[in-house]
Design goal:
Layout: E1 6-9, H1 17-27, E2 31-34, E3 36-37, E4 40-41, H2 47-59, E5 63-71, H3 100-114, E6 118-121, H4 134-151, E7 154-158, H5 168-177, E8 183-187, H6 189-194, H7 199-203, E9 212-217, E10 219-223, E11 228-232, H8 241-250, E12 256-259, H9 270-287
Parallel strand pairs: 1-2, 1-12, 2-5, 5-6, 6-7, 7-8, 8-9, 9-12
Antiparallel strand pairs: 3-4, 10-11
Length: 288
């Protein structure tokens, strides 16, 4: 049996944060990852709203594992034409390149208030020639890592299909170039799949397991005609979660696995879909 704690990205269930906390407690899920609540991105929340989040979690005996920020999820100036194949979802947040130092500082402050060890960040909206921007992006990220290091909070660079570091190969290469005291990797196999990579075992082989600080779990089948993902229950798609979790255990991964459902659920009931996926993920983790 694997001992990875299971977490949930709260807004995959509901914008009603208290309801999500109650559901997590009922399911036996100990950790929360906050992105939006009450129809507001976490970075737009006031200090009082952050206090409300923490108080609600504390009442249920839950802890925050990650602030799922939109830092570096924006256009890189003079980076070239944007790759239009991918939808740009910033989850009720819209910030410019110039805003990034400010919102990173706020994300780190929120993480400290919530006692969350990680802040998730990205690698700018993907362009049609991502390779030409690699060194520049690493340079920007390194500066952010220096800020994070002084706060004692780790930044987790997520492989996101709409951003420059989309695959295991890309985020693994970036991790080798980033200071391990400032950065870990948020490994998302489904994002790698949507980016066109066979996430496991191929993409995973490029990501040093000791650099993985957090894992996102969702599942899909790629529609060959549209080349778009059809989201589904965890374990019912082509990501290969059973084998992926077993390898994480074998390789000594010691972090959390956080549910990011994406599936709309049976009959369009997202809450039910997320609850179903949570139960599936718990079974898969216990069997790994």
């Amino acid at each position: 049996m694997a001992d990875f704690p299971v977490a949930v990205i709260t807004d995959e269930f509901s914008q009603d944060f208290d309801r999500v906390c109650a559901t997590a407690q009922e399911l036996g899920i100990p950790e929360l990852e906050i992105r939006t609540a009450w129809d507001k991105n976490v970075l737009a929340m006031t200090d009082e709203e952050i206090r409300r989040l923490k108080a609600a979690a504390d009442r249920r005996g839950l802890r925050f594992i990650c602030v799922a920020s939109p830092v570096y999820k924006c256009v890189l100036p003079e980076g070239g034409d944007i790759d239009a194949r991918f939808h740009h979802d910033a989850f009720q947040a819209s910030y410019s390149f110039e805003d990034q130092p400010r919102i990173l500082a706020r994300a780190l402050d929120i993480a400290a208030r919530l006692e969350a060890p990680f802040v998730r960040v990205f690698s700018f909206w993907r362009t049609v020639d991502p390779e030409r921007n690699f060194d520049r992006i690493v340079e920007v990220l390194q500066r952010g890592g220096e800020t994070a290091r002084s706060s004692g909070i780790l930044l987790g660079i997520e492989n996101e299909h709409a951003c420059h570091f989309a695959t295991g190969a890309e985020v693994g290469r970036a991790a080798q170039s980033l200071d391990p005291d400032g950065y870990g990797v948020v490994w998302d196999p489904a994002n790698a799949c949507v980016a066109g990579e066979r996430a496991f075992p191929d993409g995973f082989a490029h990501v040093p397991v000791e650099r993985i600080c957090h894992v996102h779990a969702k599942d899909c089948v790629m529609d060959t005609a549209s080349n778009q993902p059809e989201w589904c229950d965890i374990g019912a798609g082509e990501i290969g979660w059973k084998d992926q979790l077993a390898r994480l255990k074998t390789d000594g991964y010691a972090g959390s696995v956080s549910l990011e459902t994406h599936w709309g659920g049976p009959g369009g009931n997202k809450y039910l879909g997320s609850t179903t996926c949570a139960k599936s993920l718990l079974r898969l983790v216990s069997g790994a």
